[in-house]
Amino acid sequence: MFTRNYSRIDRILDQFEHALGTSLGAQAHAARPNPAGDLPAAELDDAERRRAVGLMRINHTGEVCAQALYLGQAAVARDAATRTQLLDAAQEETDHLSWCHDRLQELDSRPSLFNPFWYAGAYALGLAAGLRGDGWNLGFVVETERQVEAHLDEHLDHAGLPAQDARSRAIVAVMKDDEVRHADHALAAGARLLPRPIPDLMRLAASTMKAIVYRI
After folding, report:
1. pLDDT tens across 81-90, in order?
2. In angstroms, rounded to a whole number, what is the distance separating the alpha carbons of residues 176 and 124?
3. Cis peptide leading into 197, omega within 30 of 0?
4. Cβ of 188: how many Cβ atoms within 10 Å?
5. Is 85 exposed, middle or buried (0-12, 13-18, 19+ CB in 10 A)?
């Protein structure tokens, strides 16, 4: 059986193509079924629909950033096992990206117009984290996923997604479970917890992103 050996240029072009597709709103292909499944679509008034759209757009952009972050980290990971773990997590984040994209379409909306900017920033951040070594690389995964877990908890709270929006809530619930598992696996693999003020700066950057993406 013929096996193609990819050159460095091939890999760079592949990542560039992935960046364009992900950040410009191309439909990602999920490996798992959409958790919303056959759940009925709820009747939402205008304010509830805007709320659901804004929050699911934030979640979609978060998954765009996750793709970029994990691929950037994997590109410079020193250990093959760390690289594999990052790429496996990125595949599950692809599922999330696809599900959020589907839900935005169902709500007659679109992803954030600033996704190329968020992708570029997250990829650069992933490279920087990875260059510090695999312990710090995995530590970045832990902190990122813990913050995402808290963010998704807010969406599932009574003040988040509309209570009757079962389709969005089903997607977010599975996303949260996956993020928890990614963090736990990174800890088990030897992650080093990030010192302050790094987590605080990450939280500030995420808050800025959410404020913009909710509307644009």
Report:
1. 888 888 888 8
2. 25
3. yes
4. 10
5. buried
SS3 20: helix
- Stretches in the chain below the pLDDT threshold 50: 1-3, 6, 10, 12-13, 20
Tokens of 36: 């919303």
pTM assigned to the model: 0.86
Cα dist. 68→18, 38, 87, 142 in Å? 9, 31, 11, 16
Tens digits of residue pLDDT in 149-164: 999 999 998 779 999 9
Query: Can you tell me the distance from the alpha carbon of 139 to that of 192, in angstroms, rounded to the nearest whole number?
Result: 5
Q: Assign domain 41-213 to its CATH superfamily.
A: Ferritin, core subunit, four-helix bundle (1.20.1260.10)
Domain boundary assignment for the chain: 41-213
Listed in sequence order, the residues at least 6 apart from 9 whose beta carbon sits closer than 8 Å to its beta carbon are: none
